[in-house]
UniProtKB/TrEMBL annotation:
One Gene Ontology molecular-function label: peptidase activity
InterPro entries: ClpS, ClpS_core, Ribosomal_bL12_C/ClpS-like
Keywords carried by this UniProt record: Hydrolase, Protease
Family: Belongs to the ClpS family.
Keyword Cell membrane tagged: no
Annotated coiled-coil segments of the chain: none
UniProt keyword annotation of Hydrolase present: yes
Function of the molecule: Involved in the modulation of the specificity of the ClpAP-mediated ATP-dependent protein degradation.
Pfam families: ClpS (PF02617)
Descriptive protein name: ATP-dependent Clp protease adapter protein ClpS
Domain Adaptor protein ClpS core: 1-76
Complex formation: Binds to the N-terminal domain of the chaperone ClpA.
Source species of the chain: Desulfosarcina alkanivorans
Matching Gene3D superfamilies: 3.30.1390.10
C-alpha cells in the first residue's frame, strides 16, 4: 500500500488544495480543510492510502489539475 502526499508551496492557494482533496480524494469539506492545514503548517499532508496503481493515478490527476490551473502543487506517493 502507498501513502499519497501533498507538499506545501508558496503559490498554490488553500482553496485549490481543498478542492483537489474533495474532488480527487473524495474528502468531506471538513476533512479536506484539516489535511490542507497540515500541508500548510507542516509542509506535507497525507491524502490517503491506496494500492500502487490507484495511488499513481491520483498523483497524476493532482499534477494535471494543478498544471491546468497554473499551480505548482506537488503530490507524491511513498510505500507505507
Amino acid at each position: 500500500m502507498y501513502r499519497v502526499l501533498l507538499h506545501n508551496d508558496d503559490y498554490t492557494t488553500m482553496e485549490f488544495v481543498v478542492e483537489v482533496l474533495m474532488y480527487v480524494f473524495s474528502k468531506s469539506p471538513e476533512s479536506a480543510a484539516k489535511i490542507m492545514m497540515n500541508v500548510h503548517q507542516k509542509g506535507i499532508g497525507v491524502c490517503g492510502v491506496y494500492t500502487h496503481e490507484i495511488a499513481e493515478t491520483k498523483v497524476d490527476t493532482v499534477h494535471n489539475l494543478a498544471r491546468e490551473s497554473g499551480y505548482p502543487l506537488r503530490c507524491s506517493m511513498e510505500q507505507e
